[in-house]
Amino acid sequence: MSSPASQIVDAVGGPGNIVGLTHCATRLRFQLRDSSPVDKAEVEAIPGVMGAVPQSGNRYQIVIGGAVAGVYNDIMGLPTMKGLSSGSGHHSDADIKAEHRSKGPRGKFSWLDNLFEYLSDSFRPIMGALLGASLFITFMALMGSLGVIGNWADSRVTLPPSWQFVNLAWQCVFYFLPLLVAYNATKRLNADPWVGFSVMAVVMLPAFTELGKAAHPLTLGGFKVNVVDVFGLPLTIFNYGSQVFPPLIMAAILAPLYKWLKKIISPNVQMIFVPFLTMLIMIPLTAFLIGPLGVYAGAGLANGLKAVNDSSSFIFAVLIPLLYPFMVPLGLHWPLNAVMLLNIQTLGYDYIQGPMGAWNFACFGATAGVLFLSIRDKDVTMRQTATGALAAGLLGGISEPSLYGIHLRYKKIYPSMLAGCLVGGVIIGAGGGLHTPAFVFTSLLTIPAFDKIGLYSVAIAASFFTAMALVIVRDYRDNDDKAAAKARRGQASVVEEEPDAVAPAIATAAAATAATEPTTETATIERAEAPTAAEIASEAVTITAPLMGHAVPISDIPDPVFSTGVVGDGIAIDPVSTTVVCPADATVVTAPDSGHAFGLKLDSGVELLIHIGIDTVELGGKGFDVKVKAGDHVSAGQPLVVFDPAVIDEAGYSKITPVLVTNGFDYSNVTGIPADDVTTSTPVTVSYTHLTLPTKA
Question: Which CATH superfamily is domain 4-102 in?
Answer without folding.
Answer: Glucose permease domain IIB (3.30.1360.60)
